[in-house]
Specification:
Distance between the termini of chain A: 48 Å
Strand order of the largest sheet of chain A: 1-2-3-8
Largest interface: A-B, 49 and 47 residues
CATH superfamily of the largest domain in chain A: MetI-like
Distance between the termini of chain B: 60 Å
Radius of gyration of chain B: 28 Å
Helix content of chain A: 55-70%
CATH topology of chain B: MetI-like fold
Order of helices and strands of chain B: HHHHHHHHHHHHHHH
Number of strands of chain B: 0
CATH class of chain B: Mainly Alpha
Oligomer: heterodimer
């Protein structure tokens, strides 16, 4: 029955593709892409192949996901511990952070961040100075960047303000910043809940026993509470990392050129939706598999060793 | 060391002595919760100073100096030093109902109120009777007929003109209602003894959970038209609803599987021993118990679907998020986007926060009702 349904759909598709004069197959990957990509680590020009465009998109996805995971974990751990604080003000602020971020859709946050970054900030010619050598403006964030000068030499390249804007240094676009902020803050709320329940899962008796044995507070946390809490925390943390990576596909809403945006552009250009969608699905599935494998390896290290 | 206390005549033995009661009263509370230790005091002072600086300014910007009337000149005169709720006042019907015909907007309003009232009426476990599910069928039909029109003298309105909050509600309701039966089938499939069925169900669930919702929406808007036979057309709303149902069903399947796994094996074995066939055992013994266990998780799925519907704006449907962007398309008002996003975020937050509180409440009290 499934086979018959599949065959029917296949015939429909072939018929429809022929009627719309859309080619099929992955030959388009080797052809000239013809569209530009705003930013990326992979060198790219509109004359490069479509395959290269997809690689640039994948690079952008991984870049925002990795930085996002790092930020979300740090923020989430801080807020999660804040919810357990004995200080009522810290506890209340942490709870408010979690509830607000968990109950407002990520899309709304992304649009709002993007508009704030591109509309409310000053023009690039007169940027907001953050500290001595970092600038924030409608053009994005410019940070000092260490540059390798050959041999053991490392120099700090500092951005400079010119009449046309800020140049030099490490430059982050508003699209990247908006996506990063949205992803990191939203995921930090979920991570905070995981950290909180992980710490609560360690029985009080463990702490009391360790203190009674004469361990210092620092030792109790490092040697007794943390190892046991991590066992509870790591598995759900893995799925939050995967969620963040998947959610980075919302980049298409604000025009950050991640792999989904590139696929969207390619579909609008050549109409080969089936191939492009298969491509992005396999990208996400393989990213998921790699992340899950890495986190499972880490999980084995922290898991309880039983006889 | 002093001699053990018990040996002294007249001493109260240690185990009989209660710890001193914690001091009561607001001052003691403050001491314990805000100034317990030096770091705690520092944190309190730092947070207090920050809040003391921020809150008056936020209240000032948000409410005290804000313009509430839909008066563009007054809003411009503010020069962004305070909120211009005039934008929301001017555009609230566009934001809430999208491009639905202006004169007919009482219909989506009535439908939404009807839906929310019915939802509130079915919230308490005391209302969970046999007639509750059948009672929802005419209600949903009324919701659709009100929006769609074409009966009882209501002018027909094409689904492509639906928008705003009613569209968000339609999508959420349809997707959740349709994905629960599909999720049950998938979950039973994943626990089936037949390797082919088990393999296919597991493959489907894991594949779908591995890809982002956006790709499923792309499939719905780019691929569905190619899969259908020539001459058959589905409008964008139906395509997106079907795509989201297929997506959500994989998550529902895991929710249901959690309930199935929580049941003791003995239930299934007892049903088998009584001579019930597999289907009857599932229908009469296993599922009723498993599904009651996961009702709070169903509410959480409802919540995440509700928040997820905001993604459909990417494939050009005008749900609550999309219609806000429609309203911001007006060049005169587009600079007041912050007010618009705060308004829409408040709607999402109120609904979602309410649902999550409800789910917590159910989790704590369901045991009592399920036993009764």
């Amino acid at each position: 029955m499934l086979l018959a349904a599949g065959l029917g759909l296949w015939r429909n598709t072939a018929h429809n593709l022929a009627a719309r004069q859309i080619r099929s197959g992955f030959a388009f990957l080797g052809q000239r892409a013809g569209f530009d990509i705003g930013e990326g680590l992979v060198p790219y020009t509109p004359d490069a192949t479509t395959l290269r465009a997809f690689a640039a998109g994948l690079g952008n996805t991984l870049r925002v996901a990795l930085v996002g995971i790092l930020l979300a974990t740090l923020l989430g751990a801080a807020v999660g511990l804040g919810r357990l604080s004995r200080n009522a003000l810290v506890r209340g602020l942490s709870t408010a952070w979690v509830e607000v971020l968990r109950n407002v859709p990520l899309v709304i946050q992304l649009f709002a961040w993007y508009l704030v970054l591109t509309q409310l900030l000053p023009d690039p010619a007169s940027p907001l100075a953050l500290g001595a050598h970092a600038y924030l403006s409608k053009g994005g964030l410019q940070l000092p960047m260490p540059v390798w000068t050959g041999g053991l030499g490392l120099a700090l390249e500092r951005p400079e303000v010119t009449a046309f804007g800020v140049s030099g240094g490490l430059s982050l676009t508003p699209e990247f910043l908006a996506l990063l902020l949205g992803l990191a803050t939203t995921t930090s709320a979920s991570i905070a809940e995981i950290v909180r329940s992980g710490v609560l899962a360690v029985p009080r008796g463990q702490t009391e026993a360790a203190l009674a044995l004469g361990l210092s507070h620092r030792q109790v946390i490092r040697r007794v509470v943390l190892p046991q809490a991590l066992r509870v925390i790591v598995p759900p943390l893995t799925s939050q990392f995967l969620n963040l990576t998947k959610n980075s596909s919302l980049a298409v809403a604000i025009g950050y050129p991640d792999v989904v945006s590139i696929a969207n552009t390619a579909i609008n250009q050549n109409g080969q939706a089936l191939e492009c969608i298969l491509l992005i699905m396999s990208v996400y599935l393989s990213v998921n598999l790699v992340t899950a494998a890495a986190m499972n390896g880490y999980n084995r290290r922290v898991a309880l060793v039983e006889r | 060391m002093a001699a053990p206390a018990q040996n002294r005549p007249g001493a109260v033995p240690d185990e009989a002595r209660e710890p001193p009661p914690p001091p009561r009263g607001p001052l003691a509370w403050l001491r314990r919760n805000l100034f317990a230790t030096a770091p705690s005091t520092v944190a309190t002072l730092a947070a207090g100073v920050a809040l003391g600086w921020l809150l008056p300014r936020a209240a000032d910007w948000l409410f005290l100096r804000a313009v509430y009337a839909p008066d563009y000149e007054a809003c411009r005169a503010l020069d962004y030093r305070a909120a211009c709720w005039g934008f929301v006042a001017e555009k609230h019907r566009l934001i809430l109902f999208g491009r639905y015909p202006w004169a007919e907007q009482w219909r989506p309003l009535l439908a939404t109120l009807l839906f929310v009232a019915a939802l509130a009426a079915s919230a308490h476990p005391r209302a969970w009777r046999r007639w509750l599910l059948p009672a929802w069928a005419p209600l949903l039909a009324a919701f659709f007929l009100l929006l769609r029109g074409g009966v009882a003298g209501l002018s027909p309105v094409d689904p492509s003109a639906w928008g705003g909050l009613p569209l968000t509600i339609v999508l959420t309701a349809v997707v959740v209602a349709a994905s629960i039966p599909m999720g049950i089938v998938l979950a039973l499939g994943r626990r089936s003894r037949m390797p082919l069925v088990r393999g296919l169900a597991t493959l489907y669930i894991e594949l779908v959970r591995g890809v982002p919702l956006i790709t499923v929406l792309f499939v719905a808007s780019f691929l569905f038209p190619l899969l259908l036979p020539q001459g058959l057309r589905l409008d964008a709303l139906a395509r997106v609803a079907i795509g989201m149902t297929f997506f959500q069903a994989a998550y529902m399947a895991e929710v249901v599987r959690g309930g199935l796994q929580a049941l003791p094996r003995g239930q299934g074995e007892a049903a088998e021993a009584l001579g019930l066939g597999w289907w009857r055992a599932q229908r009469r013994v296993i599922l009723p118990q498993a599904l009651v266990l996961v009702i709070p998780s169903f509410v959480n799925s409802l919540l995440s679907t509700f928040l997820d519907t905001s993604l459909v704006t990417v494939v050009s449907l005008y749900d609550l998020t999309g219609s806000l962007r429609l309203a911001l398309g007006d060049p005169q008002w587009r600079n007041f986007f912050l007010e618009g996003y705060l308004f829409v975020a408040a709607i999402y937050f109120a609904s979602s926060f309410g649902m999550s509180r409800y789910s917590h409440w159910l989790e704590r009290h369901l045991g009592r009702w399920a036993r009764a």
